[in-house]
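Predicting holo structure, zinc ion bound.
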Amino acid sequence: MSFDTIITDGIVITAADSFEADVAIEADRVVALGRNLPRDSAKNIIDAKGKLILPGGIDVHTHLDMPFGGTTSADDFETGTRAAAFGGTTTLIDFAIQYKGQTLRTAFDTWMKKAESKACTDYSFHCIITDLPDAQLDEMPQLVREGVTSFKLFMAYPGVFMLDDASIFKALRSSAKTGALVCMHAENGGAIDVIVKQALAEGRTAPKYHALTRPTTAEAEATARAIALAEMAGAPIYIVHLSCNDALEKVREARDRGLPVFAETCPQYLYLSIDNFDAPGFEGAKYVFTPPLREKWHQEKLWNGLKNDHLQVVSTDHCPFCFKDQKELGKDDFTKIPNGGPGIEHRMSLIYSGGVAKKRFTVNRFVELTAATPAKLFGLYPRKGTIAVGSDADIVIFDPIREHTISAKTHHMRVDYSMFEGIRVTGMPEVVLSRGRVIVEKNEFLGRAGQGEFIKRSTQA
Ligand code: URP
Ligand code: ZN
Ligand code: ZN
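Done. Tokens:
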């Protein structure tokens, strides 16, 4: 028996189990798990004593190189996937946007070109549909056959991304047939637009009005409507970036009725609140993303939702814009602040720290939320999302006691601020492998642009 790499003496953590084992890797796959695997024949030995051996993180909600709000998100597929790797995320699912009048295929081809030569980790795409005339409905199953097995639809951003209920319903009916999954941005865009116009007319232009014009009820109403449309279509539905208890209640009720309804939240809704808008001057713009930050009490409700499986996934909605020149576009009008925040690098540490170190849930639940369930829901499992013989050797050797203070001074994302500046976390990735290759070690990047592969995903059907 000879192996390329053996990771020795760590504790392997999956969604189901924790056990002491060596992990042997040959080429890009895990080929053996067990105590005292023969070490003399391995080309590379990585000592994981005292460390956790985790499946690489899977972030199913990122926006790299995305034109939005009059500018483009600051990380491209190279800088974004590199920062992800530093944080222990080895696969991401980004969004290919179909603009009105375009085919879905054009969206996919455009985003493949952005990623192909740049991605340092594996990646896949959801397709954002902004326009769905009947003549184009057949494009959905075509894309599913090419491994793009999920679609994002918007109930917000009228005139930009928002889709009407009839089109949403048709897309859901298509997904019911093909086994694809519809991801929904659930906010009532029409009502919000009325509130926003009134605020501007009254001279309320500061960043905090972004939050004050997007009530939790608008998110809860759209979440309930999305669930109802999915139920009528006989389709599953996945609610993205859920931010508040009102929407969480809608998801919980639907799941209690046995409906295939799933939802993610993001670290910003677990760690930040509307109080962040009290930052001096225009600094509140750093926290302008959608749905907005809520009152602090929602945070514990969301942590509870993660613990009790009312929420199934933590993603980042990484959509970075620099404060200088990008967020500043909205200096005199909060509606012109590009919506989005940077987070791809810190998801694993923030959720381990707040979830496991703070004893809100187990380390196995942590793996479930950050890797296993994302892989299962989005057609990557068991190739990714677990450590098992035959799985891709996407592995994070994680130090559960190392502490770190998050700061823009030390992060690797191409953005000039951190949403989580000064937050101290417990638990940090030490070594990161992507398909068997060490890409991060001792805080050094050892991967290269273009080594990440597009992953064709399967469906739930
Ligand atoms: O503010 C956000 N979330 N920007 C990215 C686009 C979206 O709605 O996910
Ligand atoms: Zn969204
Ligand atoms: Zn998003």
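Residues 207 and 334 are 5 Å apart (CA to CA).
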